[in-house]
Design a protein that fits this description.
This protein has about 375 residues and is of the alpha/beta class. Helices cover about 40% and strands about 25% of the residues. The protein has 14 helices and 16 strands. The strands form 4 sheets. A 5-stranded mixed beta sheet has the order 6-5-4-7-11, sandwiched between helices. Helix 4 crosses helix 5 and helix 10 packs across helix 11. The longest helix is centred in the C-terminal third of the chain and has 25 residues.
Length: about 375
């Protein structure tokens, strides 16, 4: 029941009876238990309570349990207090460049205290979820390799557990968590098989198969950025050459445009110049779009998803050069699969990984309902 309320928000007792397949008496007992535990509220629409009244509505409590969701990115840390139902209550954002592990742990611990001070006194922090831009060993909370922030074998989960004792702490890859969030409460909410591709400095991906996040034996699945497109292409930090990340990532876009500056402002300027018709910027966007189309064709052929969600800077490439991407797909993707696979953008915008981190943090709560 708590899982249903968390995913869909307000539900009537009648809807819960139908979705869970239980009788009304049992539903009433379970709702009462969650109310007593301070997890949900219950009310009658319109305030009436008489014969013929509408079914009682059950909803997450805004001052109930919440988690600390953290998105660690190349240039920022975003922390948010997120309640049941995926509601972001308060958030903080800090600019940070190539952060050292100790600096990140200090920032997250400080944010936990600051956000707690802004929450109602009755609200209880029940877990921490962190989205990291790299390969993560999910069972150990170990950031194995995050090259864009120059981390290797960082025990982030252990370090946070020492600073935030008594809390369940979980670490996940940013693209996997973005896929999880878009599937749970975003653009792919009603779908069972989805591929999520995200691209800024790095390029990553997450895959939902039959409603479940594909993680692999250690949580390393979904490294779309390291599919090799060109064996003679640029060297990649992974040790290979011509990886997707080196050909469609932001650094590739800037390189094609002849821009030596790095960062979001430089990328935004190239995209704006391309839309204004600047030849070199426009050609740079076309080159990225062409390789993005080839990458998406591979993913569609391999996974046959219901949709591909394209996020971050790659969503802008899709918007500007959709025709180029579609031509590549028409040429390279199997017609049967392509015909049933739309390209869509995230409903959660750039917060997909942050909301995914909150979903990760809530997993133990939903499993135990205590």
């Amino acid at each position: 029941m708590l899982r249903e309320i968390h995913r869909y928000g307000e539900l009537t007792r009648a809807e819960l009876t139908t979705s869970l397949g239980l009788n009304r008496s049992t539903i009433g007992d379970l709702v009462g238990d969650l109310v007593r535990r301070g997890m949900v509220d219950e009310h009658v629409p319109g305030g009436g309570d008489k014969a013929g009244r509408p079914s009682h509505v059950v909803a997450p409590r805004p001052d109930g349990p919440y988690v600390l969701a953290v998105e660690l990115d190349v240039e920022r840390i975003v922390s948010a207090a997120v309640g049941l139902g995926g509601r972001v209550h308060v958030r903080r954002e800090t600019t940070i460049v190539e952060p050292a592990p100790g600096e990140v742990v200090d920032r997250i611990a400080a944010d936990a205290l600051a956000l707690a001070a802004e929450m109602p006194a009755s609200a209880t922090l029940v877990g921490v979820g962190v989205s990291a831009p790299g390969t993560v060993h999910v069972t150990e909370g170990l950031v194995v390799h995050a090259p864009n922030i120059r981390w290797r074998d960082v025990p982030l989960g252990q370090a946070l557990a020492e600073r935030l004792p008594g809390l369940d702490i979980r670490i996940g890859n940013n693209a996997n968590l973005g896929a999880l969030a878009e599937h749970q409460r975003g653009a792919a909410r009603q779908m069972r098989d989805v591929v999520y591709v995200t691209g800024s400095v790095g390029v990553g991906g997450g895959v939902i198969v039959d409603g479940t996040l594909l993680q692999g034996s250690n949580g390393y699945a979904g490294e779309i950025g390291h599919i090799m497109l060109d064996p003679d292409g640029p060297s990649c930090h992974c040790g290979s050459n011509g990886c997707v990340e080196t050909i469609i990532g932001e650094h590739a876009l800037l390189r094609y445009a002849g821009v030596t500056d790095l960062g979001p402002a430089a990328v935004a300027a190239v995209l704006a110049d391309a839309e204004r018709g600047s030849p070199r910027a426009a050609e740079a966007v076309v080159r990225v779009a062409t390789s993005l189309g080839r990458t998406l064709a591979i993913l569609i052929n391999v996974f046959n998803p219901e949709a591909v969600v394209v996020g971050d800077t790659l969503a802008e490439i899709l918007r500007i050069e959709c025709a180029t991407i579609e031509r590549e797909l028409a040429h390279r993707a199997k017609a049967e699969s392509r015909a049933v696979t739309p390209l869509i953008t995230p409903a959660l915008g750039r917060d997909s990984a942050l909301i995914g981190a909150s979903e990760l943090a809530f997993q133990h709560v939903l499993a135990s309902a205590v």
